[in-house]
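so my prof wants the structure for this chain in the tokens format not the other one, which i didnt know existed until like an hour ago. anyway here's the sequence
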Amino acid sequence: MKTILSYGGGVGSTALLLLMKDKIDEAVFVNHGGDYPETYQFVEFISKKIFPITIIKSNIEGFSNLYEYMWHKRIIPSYRYRWCTDKFKIRPITKYIKQKYGKAIVLIGYTFDERKRIKPLRNGLIYKYPLVEMKITREKAKEIIKENGLPIPKKSACWFCPFAKKSEIKELKEKYPKLFKKLVELHRRCQRKDIALKFGVKDDLQDMG
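here's what i got, hopefully its the right format
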């Protein structure tokens, strides 16, 4: 049975790749268009220098880009139900793996700190969480990356994620003003003032009323 790494371009999955690259048959990254530019750059770097990364696209109701899907549907991911992860990450990679291999073992790079994120997935694939089993924390994962002479990647997350911290939104506004503008426009279109308040962009949405 093949062993596939679900690669996200962040600390956990990168440390896992370095630890188990000799046992991994393929590493797959889902490009849904919502990651930070640094993440795409890092994935390209890893693919060239460390291990080839297969990049696949989402296709949800004709949309490959998560932002465009939200814009069209006038919705923003919910705090309670992360449909975005299910639709634009889990489903595409599950479909790809099952079509190519049938059954397979899928490695997920959750660190020991993130073990509460583990949820049963009943889709015919076998999921394993080696970093959790080895009790490797996020800080230890960073050490593994450094020991291999690699830079620490940016946290793997969408730039419009509702779980983002205010400091991250502030950084987005300062570093990527065009993406920040798109974030504000999405909030305005979806009329989500509650999220606007959380993100600290209330002043940018004054015309929402």
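also thought this was worth mentioning. The longest strand covers residues 26-31.
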